[in-house]
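Much of the work behind modern protein science is quiet bookkeeping, done one molecule at a time. The protein below has been through that process, and both of its lines are reproduced in full.
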Amino acid sequence: MSKLLKHLKDKEYYEKMFNTWIPSEQHIDEDHDIWRLQSPEYANQFVAMYRDGYHLFIYGDYGNLVFDRMTWKGNPYNLAYESLDYQMGKLSHDCYENIHVYDSAYCREDIIKWCNEQIKDNYNVCDKLYNKINEFLKDLYNSDLEDYLIFDIEEIFADDPDYDEISDDAESIRDLAVFVSEALDNTDEYEWISFLRKSNLSDFEEVGESSLWNAGKRINQKFYINLYAMYALSEKLKGI
């Protein structure tokens, strides 16, 4: 349960709200059941689960989730709340794809993180210079990108006695930073994948294994809200 709450934004809000909602359970037959968590004020405000054999459907105020890869007869009491990746793996293919949403701001964060990892893993950079590069990247993230499309890596480390440690790598680090500059300028959802395909990403790592293909993708909060609603429902029913 702690892992689910860790991912849930505004958890105090949902804890308080679902605590006031009314639980119900309808047993139809051996393979079919309906569980429902209902607002006491509005009849059309609810989160429900319908079980059809090994298939589960969660629906209501926070969208729909379809679990068609379950290996057990699921219910609100036995979902893998502490193993979210495992539970997510039980989603239908379309549902799994749909809960991953793209955000250009997250994409920019992921690009900077990727660049940091590239520098730390592939270049002989002491902590002092690494921190200096990291500060430069933060400036790059927050500034007018066009100002950074062409620059001299030596300008970053002007008069720094430790510069000699990476002088041999200066040109390749410069190329990396130029790539990052261009990447940050192409984080629109409809530009990002096209940019990667046309870019020189292969100069820095194996293209097919790059984490940048998933940059900007996050799991929609509705996935966590629906699961938390089912957890709250199960706890309420246990107390009846």
Remarks:
- Confidence is low (pLDDT under 50) at residues 145-152.
